[in-house]
Design goal:
- By secondary structure, the chain is of the alpha+beta class.
- Helices cover about 15% and strands about 35% of the residues.
- The chain has one domain.
- The chain has three helices and eleven strands.
- Strands 3, 4, 5, 6, 7, 8 and 11 form a seven-stranded mixed sheet that branches.
Length: about 180
């Protein structure tokens, strides 16, 4: 009988629909073609902190992303920026949440935001690849029109919950707040 019980996080296919149990929040990799899927129902705006990580001496911006709850906006002032999140999928049928930083932490416009929004628009219509060049994203369109995988059955809010897990700054006790205040 024990063999018949399947843990909920092990479900991959329910009634013919793929349920996502893991999901990354990340920018598309420079070598991967991707599509933005799901229309506006799979797009949300929020305030996010894009923490720079250093690997081998080089800054890797956007590698750690935290959403800032409305109740923490004053505490986190100067450390977050408006960010749009959209559902994307690559050619390997791997879904991910793509963050698009709309303004910098000081409220100024980011030159990359315009090109990132253009890339999102193009990726809604066809497979594209983006890469960074001269302070903006360059867009490469695929010559082939590959099929787009079916959208997962979860709502976008459910997908964000899966992707964010412990990445919501909702109280002064969050580890990021403690680091910024020098408490750890």
């Amino acid at each position: 009988m024990r063999d018949l019980i399947v843990k909920q996080n092990k479900f991959e296919n329910v009634c013919g629909m793929n349920m996502l149990t893991e999901l990354e929040i990340r920018k598309p990799k420079g070598e991967e073609f991707f599509r933005v899927v799901g229309g506006e129902a799979y797009s949300k705006g929020s305030f996010a902190m894009h923490e720079a990580q250093s690997e081998g001496g080089a800054a890797n911006f956007g590698s750690e992303i935290y959403v800032v709850s409305p109740n923490m906006l004053e505490v986190m002032s100067g450390f977050y920026c408006p960010t749009k999140f959209v559902l994307a999928v690559n050619r390997d049928d791997k879904f991910f949440i793509m963050p698009i930083k709309l303004l910098n932490k000081n409220g100024g416009t980011i030159s990359s935001a315009k090109s990132a929004l253009k890339a999102e628009e193009e990726a809604r219509k066809q497979w594209v690849r983006i890469f960074w060049k001269c302070s903006k994203y360059e867009i490469v369109k695929s010559d082939k029109d590959f099929p787009v995988p079916s959208i997962p059955p979860q709502t976008f809010c459910q997908l964000l919950e899966i992707a964010l897990q412990d990445r919501v700054i909702g109280s002064p006790d969050h580890i990021i707040v403690k680091k910024l205040e020098g408490r750890v």
